[in-house]
Structures are given as C-alpha cells and as structure tokens.
Write a structure and sequence with these properties.
The protein has 183 residues and is mostly helical. It contains seven helices and three strands, in the order H-H-E-E-E-H-H-H-H-H. The chain has a three-stranded mixed sheet, with helices on both faces. The longest helix is centred in the first third of the chain and has 17 residues. The protein is globular and about 40 Å long.
C-alpha cells in the first residue's frame, strides 16, 4: 500500500511525503477487517487499551479527541453524528496517535486544573487542545482516517453501538457540561 495516491490526484511535494508516511504506516499496521479489530491490534502493540468513548459534543466543538490516561488511551467521539462519521473521527484520532502528533502547550494547565481539578492537567490538555495540532498534522490524521477507512473491510453504518465505560461516565458528564453540550 505504500505510496497510495491522494484520492487519485497528483500530490504536491508535502502531500507526496504525507502519502508515503501514511502508506508505510498502514503497511506496518496492516488492515484488519473492522475498526474494533484495528483498535485491538493497536492496543496490543502499545500494551495499553485504546477505548472509544461515545459522548455528545457540541456541533461547534471538536468531534473527537484523545485522552492519554496512565493505563489506557481514550478516544472521546461525538454521538450526535452518523455512524460513518463517528468511525471516521475515531480513525482520525487514531491517526494522531499512530503518527505520535504533539500539539500541546503548557499555557492551558491553570485552566484545565480549574475545570478538572482531580485529573492530571496534561491529560486534560491532551483531550481538549486538538485544535493546537498543526495544519500538516491535521491533514496527515485526516489522510490516515480516509485511507484506513477505505482499507477496512467493514464500513457498514449498522454496527455495534459504542458504550461509555462506567469508569469514564463521570468524566463524560463533566466534558459535556464544560463544552456546553446541547443534550
């Protein structure tokens, strides 16, 4: 799969490098039959569970974000969209994860402690500052999500529902309240 074309267009140099990185990464990861299998495979490689956490997020906010917890990685994603879009946003966050994108600044630590005093500020920052990724990182994660999504053998909207794990439910409530969830 290395050297995938970017949707059949002749890519510019930046996209060419991005295509090569994305293709090589997908070759390394492989293409499991479905998203849950991909998450299981990546969880095993990282020796940390990667857990999708459905939540209602406001339309003007992020549609998904990562939370690096001490023993697991949570992918919070919005449920107020189609199943296809939910899966795509999960794949987008997986793209940030597998490319090891970083875009967090320390300037938000005080704000994060005010809203989530019992959670490590670096965790809150990593969850809420997705917009601080560079444009190239966003494009790379989006390319990964699109290409991996096309490579997965299962893209049926009628699949199992994602469930909020009990230990995450209070955090989901606070995130929804903090972001002004309409529900």
């Amino acid at each position: 799969m290395t050297g995938f074309p970017f949707f059949g267009r002749a890519p510019r140099d930046g996209f060419s490098r991005m295509n090569q990185r994305c293709g090589a990464l997908i070759d390394e990861i492989g293409t499991p039959p479905d998203l849950k299998s991909l998450l299981a495979s990546l969880s095993a490689k990282r020796e940390r569970p990667i857990i999708p956490v459905p939540t209602v997020l406001p339309p003007e906010g992020p549609s998904a974000f990562l939370a690096h917890m001490p023993n697991e990685i949570w992918i919070f994603f919005s449920t107020n969209t189609s199943k296809l879009h939910q899966n795509h946003t999960i794949l987008h966050e997986i793209g940030h994860l597998v490319f090891e994108h970083r875009g967090i600044t320390d300037a938000e630590r005080v704000l994060s402690q005010a809203h989530f005093p019992d959670i490590d500020p670096s965790i809150v920052i990593s969850m809420l500052l997705r917009s601080s990724y560079s444009d190239e990182q966003e494009a790379e994660a989006e390319l990964f999500a699109s290409v991996m999504g096309m490579a997965l053998h299962e893209w049926r909207p009628a699949q199992d529902e994602w469930i909020v794990p009990d230990e995450v439910a209070p955090i989901v409530e606070r995130i929804q309240k903090f972001l002004g969830s309409p529900y």
